[in-house]
Structures are given as structure tokens and as C-alpha cells.
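Standup notes, structure subgroup. Blocker cleared on the adenosine-5'-diphosphate input:
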Amino acid sequence: MSTTTTHDFQAEVKQVLDIVIHSLYTDREIFIRELVSNAADALEKMRLTQLTENDVFGADLPLQISITTDENAGTLTIADHGIGLTRAELVENLGTIAHSGSKAFAAALKNAGKGGDASLIGQFGVGFYSAFMVADEVKVYTHSWRNDGEHLVWSSTGAGTYTIDEAPDQVRGCRIVITLKEDAKEFAQPHRVRSILGKYSNFVGFPIQLNDELVNTVEAIWLKSKDEITDEQYKAFYQFTSHAFDNPSYRLHFQADAPLVINALLFLPEQNMELYGMGQMEPNVGLYCKKVLIDPHPKKLLPDWMRFVRGVIDSEDLPLNISRESMQDSALVRKLGEVVTKRLLKFLDKEAQDDAKKYQEFYSKFSRFIKEGVATDHTNRDAIAKLLRFESSLTEKGEVVSLADYVGRMKEDQKAIYFQVAPSRNTIETGPYVEAFKSKGYEVLYLYDNIDEYVVSSLREFDGKQLQAVNSNEVDLGDIANDGDSLNEADTTSLCDWLKTSLAEGVEEVRSGKRLVNSPALAITPDGEMTPQMRQMMKAMKPDEVEAPKVILEINPRHEIVRKLSALSQSNADGAKLIAEQILDNALLSAGLLDDPQRIVARTEKIMAQLLSKA
Ligand code: ADP
Ligand code: MG
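Run returned:
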């Protein structure tokens, strides 16, 4: 009686297999790296399990990886004594993909061009399937570390289904047997496999045997001194330990003795995986104590926003028997995280100053994390804020300035750091707000990102200078020298009163402003009101609960339209009202506060009709 069961791969897996089998021709050798890395993961899990479990199947088996080649049979076998898999785990882990990995992988491959870029695969949590680049068939013989597990073999040719069958006499762990395709027989040659292993096997934390010969010396490169390590080795270490395919954009390797003994090797990637739609990354700086891995993804070591940082932190001050649970609340771990965070922030600030162009390249992909840091990491807020970059009224399009540079060139009488949040440079420069700042020679930062508003409102100040939105009621620009004709004070006051009555529904206050140069009016958010950007976010979430805004309308008594409106309000109140409403809507539009642009159409038609009737 056959015990074989046949299963369909989940649709996402089929998609990945289709890509792997039909469109990847280059870098096929990486499948070895992926399978070795899975074996190492399984061994690492076994090591941790053994710390707490006494009842382990095959408890005496060594934690190592054995690779064997058979040129005659055309097979390559990769075996480990890791945790192995139960029947349910085979289905769960080798038949389905839980997260968005497959979609993200497909999208990334599209960018990689013809022939694909197989090295991408590990990054997307689908590394196992890379075996099908070279395999006619893959068999996974396994027994779980659990005593009640079964002796099993999983097998598939990659064509839509896999089978699971009983396979007596398995030892604990996994033995993956790959029957190589005709054009992939090279991977059954010992020297070929050896040279592939040579690139990274020393970073694997367990012994690797190739045809019964030890091929690696387990090496903790973070404990070595910098001049003993080549760039190539750093890169290989980075790529292997963080499953990465890119080059690190920055690298920080340091030793410290006080207040804690620390050996740290940190990398900042080149590609932001969250931009590939992979969802939120896990923390990726492993915590070690004297070369022994305590937690590969420690949650409370570095601040959350630093989850894009990869690498290793090793401290001999940690108790070796610290468990993952207790490390989360350990004061020592917290201290360790703080020291490393500060060091990294200082390092980045210096790098950014030394090579602004390189930093901007990095920033363009990772600014989200830095902004998240400013908004959430109170302890390090000021240091993180140094890493922010924005365009401004004094930069060219595409060039950026830091807050420190901004403060360094503030005018002597300038009271605050000014910014405007808007979708584009053009919106800001054609709008009414910046003109007054420009005429005073004050720089205005241009914030284009939705979350910028939130970032600056969390930051509040930098280097003792308040951050102020150009459209906030708090802005005080003092006197602006204005030439030319102006309404006198009495007329201005009565025009303001008239406007307040005529526009009662849309304005809280109408006043004459000094800060306008070329525009007739602008809208200011009253104190305590939501800013336009917050209002838009609220509206997106709860459209019915956000009322039409009431603004402070600041008019420019020197502007021709305003001067003539004053006269018209006496002679033709109806016509003047139309124009007043239009002035308000124009101001709301510039402020990003106009909810109903349609009403402008009807009104301008009325205005046109009146004009034409006089023609
Ligand atoms: P990832 O390693 O990123 O999780 P993979 O596609 O490489 O993705 O592997 C899928 C899953 O299969 C692993 O998470 C693990 O649960 C399981 N697996 C793969 N190889 C082994 C192995 N040698 N021993 C135990 N489990 C394994
Ligand atoms: Mg893997």
C-alpha cells in the first residue's frame, strides 16, 4: 500500500517556481548559498532548542553541515542535523509562502533585466526554491527534532505539485538531494562546489564538510581588526549574513571598551527592501556574546526605526546564558543598544558631511526611516534630525540642505526655521507664502513628503530654533518695507470689516498683512486648528467629520485688486462680493484647503458675464 500523498503548491509558490525555472539563467550557483544558509538556520534553531529541551530526537548528533557530490549520478546532497521538519512543517514551509515575498520577488526581477538576477532570491524569503534552477528533481529527506515526528521524504520536480512519503531510518535534520539538470552537472564537481563555498563558508557558524573534508574555519570577522579584512570579505560577510544581494552603502566596524566591551560590525544597505513592498523588515543586527549568537533578530536592541541596519553586535559583558526573553528587558542590552545607536548616528552625520553626494543618494532611499526616527525616537531625536535633508528656497531643484546648514546661514534678525509643506517645488514657488520670506532674505525649507509635517511637528525645534510653518499664525516677520500705493488705514479697516461680514462662513478673521508682496491675500491656519496637511489626512479617513475650514484671511492693502475692491464694495456690493469670494477661494487653494473647487467654475462664469455685459 502506497503512503504517498500529492499536494499542490500554493499559487504564489507556483509563480516563484515558474520564474526560477524559466527565467533565471545567471548566477545559478547561488542555490548552494541558499541551501547552506537554510541548513545553518536550522542548526542555529537546534542549538537554541537544545538549551531548553531535554527530549530531543538524535540528541547526540553533531551540529554540522555535510555536502556530498556524486558526479556519476549527477547529484548534489546537502545535509544538516538541524531541527528538521514535521509533515505539517513540510507543507507549511516548502509548499507555501506566508508573506508578500513572491510578488515582491517578481517585481524586483522585472527590474533586473534579461536572464534575471538569481542572487536576489534569498532576500525575498524564497531561497529554497532556487534549487529548481539547477534541479530536475529535489528530494528533502527529514526527521524533526521532535520525538513524535515522522521519517519522511518530500519530493518535487517543480512542476506544480510535490509529494510527501514515508522514508524509514532518517536521522534528525534535513538531507536535500538534488538531481541536477543536464546543463547543471558542473554542480556535482567537487572543485566547483568547493570554490562556491569558499566565498562565504567561513561566515557560517557551523562546520561544513565537503565529501568528508572540513572546508571552513568558523570565523567571527567582527572580532578581527579592520586592517585584517578586505573590502571583498566585508562584502561577502554582509551579503551572506543578511541574505543581501546589494553592496553595503556604509560600513561601521568598531571596538569599544567603555562603558561596555563592544565589537560591532554594522552595514547600511544600498536597497531599501521595504520599497519593494516586502512589508516591515525585522530587526537585522544579530546579538552575540563572545561569538555565540544570542538572537539573530533582537527586537529591543536598536530602536525600531533602525531596522534597515544589518550586522553584528558582540559584547562579552553579556551573560552567556541570557535567554531571548530576558534579554528584551535587560538593562545591559538597553545600554548596549544606546551606545551603538549613538555611535552609528555620529558616524552617519560625519559621513554625510564628508561626502554629501553619496549621502543624498542613500537618503533618497532611506529617508523614511530617518523621519520615522525623528518622530518616534525621543532619546536620539536631535542627533537623528541632523540627518534630515530638504530642498529650500535657496537650493536648486534636487539639491538639499541640512538643518544645521540652514541654521548656520540664518539672518541675524531671523527668529525661526521656516518651512512649507506642499506637494511640489512649483506649488510653493507660485503660491503666496514664500514671497515675504524671500524678500526678508529668509530661507524656507520645502517639505514634499506627506509625513514631513508630522516629522517637523514632533521635532518642534532644532538647535534652539523653533520650526514654523509659513502659513502658521505664529509667524512674525516684523516690518517689511513696501513701496507704492496702499489703502489708507481707515479704508483698510473698513474693507476688512466688510470682508469679514461678506465671507462670514469661511473666515474667522480678516486682517491686513505686512507679509504679502505680490499676492492679494493668503490664508493662515488659526492657532489650535489642524494644519492643512493634518486636515487632509483626517478627511481621507473620516470625510464626513471634517468641517469646512475657517481661516484667517490676510489681505494685502498694497495690491491693486485689494485697492480696487475697497472702492467697488461701496459702489457695487454684489460684484464686490463675488470677487471677495474668489479671493478667498484662491487663498484656500494655495493653502491646500479648498474642498470644493467646483464652486469656482460657477462663480468665475458670473464674473465673466458681468465683465462682458460691460464690453
Ligand atoms: P527563508 O530561509 O527565508 O525562510 P527559504 O525559502 O530559504 O526561506 O526556506 C523556507 C523555509 O523552509 C524555512 O523558513 C524553513 O522553515 C524551511 N527549511 C528550509 N530548509 C530547511 C532545513 N535545512 N531544515 C529545516 N527547515 C528548513
Ligand atoms: Mg532561506
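Discussed briefly. The pocket of magnesium ion (ligand 2) is lined by residues 34, 37-38, 122, 127-128 (CB under 6 Å).
Next: hand off to the docking folks.
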